[in-house]
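Regression test case RT-17, inverse folding.

Input:
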């Protein structure tokens, strides 16, 4: 596994959690925060492919 894939595997959930925390801080609904988590995780993992695409799709 390439080093950028290892970083993406760790960074994806961290960025998703950061996005959800900031959305919650600014008053977004919980459903929107969960949607943000899923979208951020899918985007990071689709771009860098730390896991196979069928896992994400």
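Golden output:
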């Amino acid at each position: 596994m390439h080093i950028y894939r290892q970083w993406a595997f760790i960074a994806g959930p961290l960025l998703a959690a950061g996005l959800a925390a900031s959305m919650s801080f600014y008053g977004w609904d919980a459903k929107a925060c969960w949607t943000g988590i899923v979208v951020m995780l899918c985007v990071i993992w689709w771009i860098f492919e730390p896991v196979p695409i069928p896992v994400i799709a």
